[in-house]
Write a structure and sequence with these properties.
about 40% helix; binds ligand F0G
């Protein structure tokens, strides 16, 4: 069959609320044109993030009831630990409350002043945690990653030659190399196995550990199966295992491919590092067999990490994101091509060429999408990555992140229609100016004024 359907049926429904244009106008002004400050009740289709916004399965909910809430040594922890060990092959598995807690612990142990942490593309929390430790976070994407029109099948790849030069020039100053799969900040683009193998070889040559930011490991593996020569006939679970076999450890936000609403994982092989990470975990997160979560969260994760490897799920997941991306492209809305795994990224510079980067074209599109269709999207451009001391980012993007197993095809059709209409009136969109911002991670709380 040509039609790829949602491989599930709906057992429980949550009404969403229609809003009027007048209401949205008032709401967006009151929120200082920052959609993070809007109450979710005023949003019709929420594409702010794919993180923690997915729907759990009936088996996950059954796990919630089955869970063991013992403080130490709960059955649920061992089920969770075994599942992660089976999938990833890492000996040591620490639960954390979410991805950034894993990052905080990792950088507390390996970061520090004067050090440099390279990555294909740091996500904002990864960058913030590396910098918080005193280290410099440096992005080394391949050149194609900065060109929204490039059709490179693995635009998430790290620039291995640049990595090699960095390790050569800064011997002793690079404590770990990180690779983010898929690269969230650069379009949700995958990293190839071949690129990971070459990265591993360079890391080995310089004796530097390789860690993955593996939030979307299953989506990345599906792209490898679809696009990498020789991988098409292999089970996704085997590809996933190959990916993790190349790394010394990983941080994972389970709110993505873990298919849960809260949770994270910190994985590693090294016993000494694990001991130190455990101490840090206990200090701020919780004991090592729960890591700041409830037993029910561990159960939900154990089941979610298994379900995400189902190939009918991954086929539907990646295909439905692509469906939105193709619809927009066909109507002349430039996106980062090819469409990403968890999100479609609109090229805001192309969407509103009359707004310069310092007037935040991405934020203008975000505000427009909310006003016009009640859709909440997320700016990934000069608001998120810019600032007085930072170079302007290569792209001004608007991310339409698709929550997992939540919206149906008609929701997606609505989103496409609204954005295509907005594009036709893009000359009416106005740039913005920041009137108030915090010291770090300003996109969450900055307040804007329309120009
Ligand atoms: N790494 C990547 C690649 C991410 O996308 C995220 C979160 C994190 C780390 C941090 O995980 O939120 O559980 O602490 N990304 C979300 C997003 C917030 O909207 O893309 P967390």
């Amino acid at each position: 069959m040509q039609t790829i359907i949602e491989p599930f049926r709906i057992k429980s429904v949550e009404p969403i609320r229609m809003t009027t244009r007048e209401e949205r106008e008032r709401v967006v002004r009151e929120a200082g044109f920052n959609l993070f400050l809007v109450h979710a009740d005023h949003v019709l289709i929420d594409l702010l993030t794919d993180s923690g916004t997915g729907a759990m399965s009936s088996e996950q909910w059954a796990g919630v009831m089955r869970a063991d809430e013992s403080y130490a040594g709960a059955k649920s922890f061992y089920r969770f630990e075994r599942t992660l060990q089976d999938i990833t092959g890492f000996a040591h598995v620490l639960p954390t409350h979410q991805g950034r807690a894993s990052e905080r612990i990792l950088f507390e142990l390996v970061g520090g002043a004067g050090l440099i942490v390279p990555n294909n593309a740091h996500f904002d929390t990864t960058r913030a945690n590396a910098e918080h430790s005193g280290a410099e976070a440096r992005n080394l994407p391949i050149p194609e990653a900065g060109d929204p029109r490039s059709q490179h099948p693995f635009k998430g790849n790290i620039d291995v030659a640049a990595l090699e030069r960095l390790l050569e020039a800064e011997r002793g100053r690079v404590p770990i190399v990180m690779v983010t799969i898929t690269n969230n900040s650069g379009g949700g683009q995958p990293v190839s196995l071949e690129n990971l193998r070459r990265t591993r070889a360079v890391c080995d040559r310089f004796g530097v550990p390789l860690f993955l930011d593996a939030c979307r490991f299953a989506e990345n593996a599906w792209f490898i199966k679809q696009r990498e020569p020789g991988q098409g006939e292999r089970p996704v679970a085997d590809i996933v295992r190959d990916i993790f076999d190349l790394a010394d450890g990983a941080t994972i936000s389970a709110k993505k491919d873990g298919l849960v609403n809260i949770g994270g994982v910190l994985l590693m092989r090294d016993e000494g590092l694990f001991q130190r990470a455990s101490e840090s975990l206990i200090l701020t997160e919780g004991y090592v067999t729960y890591g700041g979560l409830a037993g029910r969260d561990l159960e939900a994760m154990a089941q979610g990490f298994k379900e995400v490897l189902r190939e009918d799920y991954l086929q539907y997941r990646i295909r439905s994101t692509e469906y939105l991306g193709r619809k927009l492209l066909d109507a002349g809305v430039q996106i980062v091509e090819p469409p990403g795994g968890h999100a479609v990224y609109i090229d805001a510079k192309a969407f509103c060429p009359h707004i310069p980067p310092e007037r935040f074209p991405g934020q203008a599109v975000v505000v427009g999408a909310y006003r016009h269709g009640g859709i909440r999207a997320c700016e990934i451009g000069s608001v998120m990555f810019g600032g007085a001391e930072r170079p302007a980012p290569a792209m001004e993007l608007v991310r339409l992140a698709i929550p997992r197993r939540v919206y149906t095809q008609s929701h997606i059709d609505y989103v496409a229609e609204a954005l295509i209409e907005l594009k036709a009136r893009a000359s009416e969109l106005r740039g913005l100016r920041i009137v108030r911002e915090p010291a770090a991670l300003r996109h969450f709380t900055a307040v804007f004024e329309e120009l």
